[in-house]
Design a protein that fits this description.
about 375 residues, Neuraminidase, 2 domains, mainly beta
Length: about 375
């Protein structure tokens, strides 16, 4: 495929920006052609969120999300797996692949080079304080309070603490059966990525431990076990606890790029970027790329360009994407995937590319007039 280029900044201008540490913009102007948008899952009475989409080697699409929920924070979340055999035109009914006694949240998925499916999530006790407040205030109806209490009482306080973690499950039969959950050390919404050298890399955050940091872990055995690889350094003046929700991609040259959701005062609400040129052994200090919005999902297109897609919660809220033609050194102007959201409870968009260049993006969104979020998708192309 011939690469489309509309570079408007001279190399001298880009070099000048880099020399003073400002975000670099490629000047690339790309546009999207939205072919269709639809709701994937409108389960009556349920809230679905934080999805990840993957395309298998056999062409099947697999999509995981946190489902069976009452609300954004609750004790009912489980990891649901959806399948499509027609490029997302229709989706089969979901399959529950993990349901711990507490809240199973952001769901990631990857098919490795060996055909193994790796699904990720993290468990949370954030609902406990909400339940305690409801008890104290007496503001809930009796049935809702009863359901929360019954869910909460499934585990003792000690069992709840033991269930908190960053979990992975593994399937070697296309997702029909799954392993028991095991600790994968870190977590991020969209899970690990496949490297060219057969290994898998997972960029994420160390959760539920006193030592909170972001970094990478590596698997050399098809996702069975994970080893700590490196920490990503902290920018001067930042609190590493305010770095969240990473995702990685490997460029054609082998360069690794990681995007980071940033909640520090400097560049608050932006996506920061870190790079590695030694296979993830060391990482650059995170820096601004001038993109407000999060979290970012990274994809290497068939022509070698990089695509980042992310939630946008300002003005016309929805989801945006940007392209890089230079392995993340600079990014294009934003492209719109969706811009008609009713509120900011949305995003976590992920994108796959089909062999003919068509793109499919999936995200979650609380629709107008509803208290429940659904999964939505857009079929689109670059023009």
């Amino acid at each position: 495929m011939k690469r489309r280029s509309a570079i408007q900044l001279s190399m001298a201008s880009v070099a000048s920006l880099a020399s003073i540490g400002l975000p670099q913009y490629s000047g690339l102007v790309a546009k999207t052609k939205i072919q269709s948008t639809q709701v994937i899952d409108a389960s009556v009475g349920h809230y679905s969120g934080w999805p990840t989409l993957a395309k298998r080697a056999n062409g099947q699409l697999v999509l995981v999300a946190s489902g069976t929920r009452e609300s954004h924070v609750c004790p009912f979340g489980s990891v649901q797996l959806y399948r499509s055999n027609d490029r997302g035109k229709t989706w089969l009914l979901p399959q529950t692949i993990l349901d711990t006694p507490i809240d199973d949240r952001d769901a990631g998925i990857l098919e490795t080079d060996q055909g193994t499916l790796l699904a990720t999530t993290f468990t949370s006790n954030a609902y406990v304080s909400i339940l305690e407040k409801a008890r104290a205030e007496g503001s809930w109806d009796a049935e809702r309070l009863k359901q929360w209490e019954l869910a909460h009482q499934r585990v003792t306080a000690e069992e709840l603490q033991a269930t908190l973690g960053t979990w992975m499950i593994r399937s070697t039969d296309g997702g029909i059966t799954w392993s028991k959950p095991y600790d994968c050390i870190l977590n991020s919404p969209h899970g690990p990525v496949q490297l060219a050298n057969v290994n898998q890399l997972y960029a994420g955050k160390h959760l539920w431990r006193e030592d909170s940091y972001i970094g990478t872990v590596l698997s050399e055995d098809d996702g069975r076990t994970w080893q700590r690889q490196a920490r990503i350094p902290t920018r001067v003046g930042d609190d590493p606890a305010q770095y969240h929700e990473l995702h990685a991609v490997e460029a054609v040259s082998g360069k690794l790029i990681v995007h980071i959701r940033n909640h520090n005062t400097k560049n608050a609400g932006e996506t920061l970027q870190s790079e590695s040129t030694d296979g993830g052994k060391t990482w650059s200090v995170p820096h601004s790329i001038g993109v407000w919005g999060f979290p970012s999902h990274l994809l290497r297109l068939q022509d070698g360009r990089l695509l980042m897609s992310y939630g946008y919660r300002r003005g016309s809220m929805g989801n945006q994407a940007r392209l890089s033609e230079d392995e993340g050194d600079s990014w294009s102007e934003p492209m719109t995937i969706s811009d008609n959201a009713d509120n900011y409870d949305l995003g976590y968009v992920t994108t796959v590319e089909f062999d003919d260049g068509e793109l499919l993006s999936v995200w979650y969104e609380k629709m107008a007039g509803s208290s429940k979020a659904v999964l939505r998708q857009a079929r689109w192309s670059l023009t």
